[in-house]
Amino acid sequence: MLLHDHKNDKSIVVVIFVTISHLLVAESLHSIIKMMYLNLQNLSFVSCKNPSNSNDAFRNEK
């Protein structure tokens, strides 16, 4: 009985560990994809903008 309980405890710990690691991996993947998506948006936004407009905005800020 004691051995059986010990085995169950181990399996529960393994399940919890696997679940947490899966969540961490999913979270990191999600953040990486989000960062890449935002970077792509920024790049396309900058390329679509007029260079003269961005220079004017920079001058206005000063």
Topology, element by element:
Blueprint: H1 2-48, H2 51-61
Task: Characterize the structure shown.
There is one protein chain. With 62 residues, this protein is mostly helical. It is rod-shaped, with a radius of gyration of 25 Å.
Report helical residue fraction.
over 70%
Look at the structure and give the mean pLDDT: 77
Structural class designation? mainly alpha
Run of helices and strands: HH
Instruction: Identify the overall geometry.
Output: rod-shaped
State the major sheet: none
The unreliable regions are none
Q: Tell me the span between the first and last alpha carbons.
A: 77 Å
Number of helices: 2
What proportion strand?
A: under 5%
Alpha carbon gyration radius: 25 Å
Count of strand segments: 0
Transmembrane segments: 12-33
Keywords: Membrane, Transmembrane, Transmembrane helix
Quick summary:
By secondary structure, this protein is an all-alpha fold.
Label this structure with key terms.
mainly alpha; transmembrane; membrane; 62 residues; 2 helices
